[in-house]
Amino acid sequence: ETELYTMPYSVAERVSAEPVQVLVHRVLTTRDKAEILTCVKQLASERQDSAAENQHYIDILYHLALFCQKEGFTTEKTAAAITIANGVWNSCVSTPFNNFDQAFEEFEEALIKYSVHRPPMSVAILSLKEAKSLLSYFQSTFFAHFKMYKYACTTAQSLALNMRSDDEVEAEQHVEVGNNKIQGTESTASGESEKRLRQSRESSQKFSQRPNSPLASKGVSINK
């Protein structure tokens, strides 16, 4: 059995989760638009959206619910449609930059997931006719107003520019190069000093170990 998900549940949740199933069933069986709006608000209540994002998301789900009701979708089919809407909405508000192509590609992948029977990767909840109908609906509604949603839900972006002349850049580069040379010189000098000290110790040890050495006759050993 392929695992599906619906708003506000994660991918690992099943579409048959009781709270979602009850709300979707109420949406499909009532003609009272106020009750449909109430159910939609409950579906969107667990999202961590801003006020503007939440308002637009509720509007999207509300009109999608009316569409599913008009098309005679079952509870499972409507839940799949809500899942798809949730995915493309997440993609829309995920970045302040224009990502229309990415959002539409994700929409197509989700639509295939719920209209092609290829377990466990996908399951044909929607028929081919229903999938085409849903595609046409999203093209004429959500994607037709994609830029408007981006504009309404994106906070102002500011860019700070730090202007520097070519002379200032070259001066900083010279300072960095000079500092690197100084550090390299200090490291080289330190290495040479240690090398000379080590050679001096080795020479002293060899001299003290000679049989006719004055230090050897006195029992003096140089190991430090």
β-strand amount? under 5%
Specify the number of helices. Answer: 9
How would a crystallographer describe the biggest sheet? none
- What is the global morphology? elongated
Mean pLDDT: 75
Tell me the structural class: mainly alpha
Helix content: 55-70%
Q: Can you write the helix and strand succession as a string?
A: HHHHHHHHH
Q: Total number of β-strand segments? A: 0
- The CA-CA distance between the termini, in Å, is 77 Å
Uncertain regions spanning at least 5 consecutive residues: 1-18
Alpha carbon gyration radius: 36 Å
Structure write-up:
There is one protein chain. The chain has 224 residues and is mainly alpha-helical. 65% of the residues lie in helices and 0% in strands. It contains 9 helices and no strands. Helix 1 crosses helix 3. The longest helix is centred in the last third of the chain and has 43 residues. The relative contact order is 0.08. The N terminus is likely disordered.
Descriptors for this entry?
mainly alpha; disordered N terminus; 224 residues; single chain
Q: What's the layout of helices and strands?
A:
Elements: H1 18-29, H2 33-43, H3 51-71, H4 75-93, H5 100-113, H6 128-140, H7 146-153, H8 166-208, H9 214-217
Helix pairs in contact: 1-2, 1-3, 1-4, 2-3, 3-4, 4-5
